[in-house]
């Protein structure tokens, strides 16, 4: 979605590679697939995802510790996150240039991971008005039924969440994590016109994607790579 701005990024489907839950995201199999994207898969930077809002900076490949946001200004640097229902969010300022990749579920939403990603880019010299955002395949409001365990922390963090959560049945809501994170992007200064949401629900499309909620053991890999020359 951000390719027009010169950014290479993609999310795998369930057919691209088998990335079992709990494994290192870059098995030999995954490395082979990623090599087909561009360059040496060993250069891909990734983190141990912990459903938080921590940020790590990548200036080379490999595992960077525990974090759910990875940022870079290094030419040609590829970043990756793994998901299965959580939101993979790509953020890019083509003028700086600077790139961030975030893994955001409901816990990350509560902790402000998306806002943290924008702020990390701003700290690197990005201008939020220039930042382009892409939200990859993830669970949609059509399928994301939650209870108070999820709603209460959201209300504690953001106040009333009627705009994102629709009462569904007794003690249950349908939660729109896309809208919650689009709101976080807007509040961080990212223009709504610059936010591209594929609106591909992983739970609706289990023929294409892994969905944790639908019992899939696999994971999707979202990759984004800084341009090699700018
Ligand atoms: Zn759905």
Task: Explain what the structure shows.
With 230 residues, the chain is α+β, with helices and mostly antiparallel strands. The protein has one domain (3-139, 178-225): 4-Layer Sandwich (CNF1/YfiH-like putative cysteine hydrolases). It is built from 5 helices and 14 strands. The chain has helices at 28-35, 106-111, 113-123, 148-158, 177-187, and strands at 8-11, 45-48, 55-57, 62-66, 69-72, 78-83, 87-93, 98-104, 132-135, 145-146, 165-169, 172-175, 195-197, 220-225. The strands form 4 sheets. A 6-stranded mixed sheet has the order 3-5-8-7-9-13. A 3-stranded antiparallel sheet has the order 1-14-6, with no helix packed on it. The two termini are 19 Å apart. Mean pLDDT is 88; it is low at 20-29.
Label this structure with key terms.
230 residues; alpha+beta; CNF1/YfiH-like putative cysteine hydrolases; 6-stranded mixed beta sheet; 3-stranded antiparallel beta sheet; 5 helices; 20% helix; binds zinc ion
List the total number of helices: 5
CATH topology: CNF1/YfiH-like putative cysteine hydrolases
Shape: globular
Strand order of the largest sheet: 3-5-8-7-9-13
The ordered string of helix (H) and strand (E) elements is EHEEEEEEEHHEEHEEHEE
Percent of residues in helical segments? 10-25%
Please state the structural category.
alpha+beta
The set of bound ligands, ions and cofactors reads: zinc ion
Q: What is the CATH C-level name?
A: Alpha Beta
Number of domains: 1
CATH architecture call: 4-Layer Sandwich
CATH homology-level superfamily: CNF1/YfiH-like putative cysteine hydrolases
Largest sheet: 6 strands, mixed
What is the number of strand segments? Answer: 14
Overall mean pLDDT: 88
Strand content: 25-35%
Low-confidence stretches: 20-29
Radius of gyration: 17 Å
Distance between the termini: 19 Å
